[in-house]
Amino acid sequence: MRHNHSERDLSGDVDVNPLFARPGELRSRPRTRLPDAPMLPETAYQLVHDEAMLDGNARLNLATFVGTWMDSQARKLYLEAFDKNMIDKDEYPSTAAIEERCWRILADLWHAPDQDRAIGCSTIGSSEACMLGGLAFKRRWQEARRAAGKPADRPNLVMSSAVQVVWEKFCNYWDVEPRYVPITEEHKTLDGADLKSHVDENTIGVVSILGVTYTGMYEPVLEVSRALDEIQRDTGLDIPIHVDGASGAMVAPFLQPTLEWDFRVPRVASINTSGHKYGLVNPGLGWVLWRDRDLLPESLVFKVSYLGGEMPTFGLNFSRPAAQVLVQYFQFLRLGRLGYHEVQKASHDVARYLADRISAMDCFDLWNDASDIPVFAWRKAAGHNPNWTLYDVSDRLRMKGWLVPAYPMPDNLSDTVVQRVVIRNGMSMDLAANLMRDLQDSVDYLDRLKEPLPDVERSVFHH
């Protein structure tokens, strides 16, 4: 039985192995209070290093979207710049200039109609970027309502029931009513169906996800936009779209370049992405852009000193490392469009290989086939051996070092349990073949069970 962190014994001391303790050092240290005396850095390093070894292997973690591989030059650049504070624009003007170059590159990549009118910024991750996109929606809606002499106290935001938890947090923290459009077997994503029954004059915007966390599927932004066009014709409501492209906004431009999801769709007001996912940077970096600076209310923007003048800045976080921004620019320079295409296609090829192999196993049914981002999910085939579940498969794979989560789908599909893999740069075809071998071995073992495994406490996967 796995223990939660809260169940660990925190009362005892941390023991120091005599083989790496230095002469005269204490052989134990208090676990939850500051020690009285200092410790040699080599010994402290060894203690922390050894405890961190208990974590899973990040390269074998197929649950996370976050990048786990960077080349040596990127790591060197990171180490040279992690002590720079991103908010200090005047002290680090070159870094500030590089940040602007990065979001301008993204504005071009996402087909902003006028790059000089677009505006954006880096964030600590795509979660902060989503918060800023939602705040811009709310503030712009409030200002328009007040200017028209209408009440502005009951905003709502429309989104799929499969949104990442950051959108639930946004609505909770900023007093916005969340309106969830349930996904179903017939409508596996927010595709515009039944949208009219969820929007009204208090709707600040609609969130469309380019790469749903549960499955990796793209929500069809163009279809959602057309549904909102029809609603506007019928009701006069002009409702904008924010594209949560945490993963897909750094995949679609290179693997599905003709797909219309970005600023080519006029109703798309803002887009966010994660630099630390398929942007190929280690944690934590996000980006958020607006197609036009008029879509970012001036009341959200602060002025900071920069090169003897002022520079607009907006964000929830203040001090944070500048290193990730520099590494993002490094990746843009190093890879270019062709390089990003090759890296993303390599991950996509691995994902399609795994999807094909898993779909051929009679115990599983694919939920989706990795045709969007290099992510896909599957469920247990109906009627297959009732003595095991996907949670048991996850446990067996964990014994081999693989972290492959099993979890229920949201709301109307909460009785459906799926497993999902996220393929990132660094997951090779050889590793994928090893995963398939271990998955087949796990299923073979479970199929030999004569009765169900004991019902034990399981580790819980959170999106």
TrEMBL record:
| Assigned EC number | 4.1.1.15
Q: Which InterPro entries match?
A: Glutamate_decarboxylase (IPR010107), PyrdxlP-dep_de-COase (IPR002129), PyrdxlP-dep_Trfase (IPR015424), PyrdxlP-dep_Trfase_major (IPR015421)
Q: Which reaction does it catalyse?
A: L-glutamate + H(+) = 4-aminobutanoate + CO2
Cross-referenced SUPFAM superfamilies, in alphabetical order? PLP-dependent transferases
Gene3D superfamilies per UniProt: 3.90.1150.160, 4.10.280.50, Type I PLP-dependent aspartate aminotransferase-like (Major domain)
Cofactors demanded by this protein: pyridoxal 5'-phosphate
Q: Its Gene Ontology molecular function terms? A: aromatic-L-amino-acid decarboxylase activity; glutamate decarboxylase activity; pyridoxal phosphate binding
Q: Which domain of life is it from?
A: Bacteria
For the protein in the UniProt heading, the enzyme class is lyase
**UniProt keyword list:** Decarboxylase, Lyase, Pyridoxal phosphate
Q: From the UniProt record, give one GO term of the biological process aspect.
A: L-glutamate catabolic process
Q: Name one GO cellular component term.
A: cytosol
Q: Report if keyword Repeat is assigned.
A: no
* Modification type N6-(pyridoxal phosphate)lysine: residues: 277
Family to which this protein belongs: Belongs to the group II decarboxylase family.
Q: What is this protein called?
A: Glutamate decarboxylase
Organism of origin: Catenulispora acidiphila (strain DSM 44928 / JCM 14897 / NBRC 102108 / NRRL B-24433 / ID139908)
